[in-house]
Design brief:
Layout (H helix, E strand, L loop, with lengths): L2 E7 L2 H4 L3 H20 L2 E7 L2 H13 L5 H20 L17 H8 L4 E4 L8 H12 L4 E5 L4 E2 L11 E2 L1 E3 H8 L15 H10 L3 E5 L3 H8 L7 E4 L3
Parallel strand pairs: 1-2, 1-4, 2-3, 4-8, 7-9
Antiparallel strand pairs: 5-6, 8-9
Helix pairs in contact: 3-4, 5-6, 6-8, 7-8
């Protein structure tokens, strides 16, 4: 099978742009996927819920829903809506992609042999799309998983709260686990630069990660190609 590139595409990337900016960014992602396919690579993109999930969850809470399992299901459905809308971008290309959104990693992997591109969202409550991407990467033996979010790096502290927080360019999975709080619960609709549940999976699988700002598609391409990129390289144990 062709080399497979696994990307967790944060829902925030769909929510932080004007209409023209979003259109331009989407076109660049389409061009990236086409060029990777031309190079003999398959692409798996796991899309987050972003603003759509937050709005739907808030609306449900405002109507009195308090069950976290049910709220998480609303968030998952939002990721699948985002994934289906994203797939429509490839309708006029030669890329072979999934016509339905997989509801499990196993389902997604089963599509991979015959397709160039798999786009999907969340799978089960209690796991973010970061975790889905990392588990997918583990399942297919990916070299690394790229977590494309709305921040440029992993920081020593939350830069929104601590102006002295510093960028980390390289760190181990164990160091990332400590910093991100592996084992901490994730609430539905929460937004993290790095999902600690996913990090725990990566640690167990010794699966390297890349964390970067997905707005810069040229930089994303560099990371995929193993070139010097702006972001955080998270390495495993050799």
């Amino acid at each position: 099978m062709k080399q497979a590139i696994v990307i967790a595409l944060g829902g925030s990337l769909l929510s932080n742009k004007t209409g023209a900016e979003l259109t331009s960014w989407r076109l660049k992602i389409v061009e990236l996927v086409i060029s990777l396919n031309d190079e003999g690579k398959k692409v798996i993109i796991i899309i987050g819920g972003g603003e759509l999930a937050r709005k739907k969850i808030k609306d449900a809470i405002d109507l009195g829903l308090t069950d976290e399992h049910e709220l998480d299901l609303i968030g998952i459905e939002s990721t699948r809506i985002n994934a289906m809308n994203f797939l429509k971008l490839f309708s006029n290309t030669n890329i072979k992609f999934n016509q339905e959104i997989p509801h499990s990693i196993e389902n997604g992997v089963s599509f991979l042999m015959d397709l160039d591109l798999i786009v999907m969202g969340g799978t089960v409550p209690g796991q973010t799309t970061d975790t889905v991407a990392i588990k997918f990467g583990e399942e297919i033996g990916a070299e690394r998983v790229i977590v494309a979010t709305n921040v440029s790096h992993v920081f020593t502290d939350d830069p929104r709260k601590n102006p002295t927080a510093k960028k980390i360019k390289s760190m181990s999975l164990n160091e990332l686990g400590i910093l991100s709080g592996v084992g901490a619960p994730i609430k539905p609709g929460s937004s993290f630069a790095v999902d600690p549940i996913g990090v725990g999976v990566a640690m167990s699988a010794n699966l390297p990660l890349v964390i970067l700002n997905g707005d810069d598609v040229a930089n994303l391409r560099k990371a995929i190609n193993g070139e010097t990129f702006e972001g955080t390289n998270v390495y495993g144990v050799n």
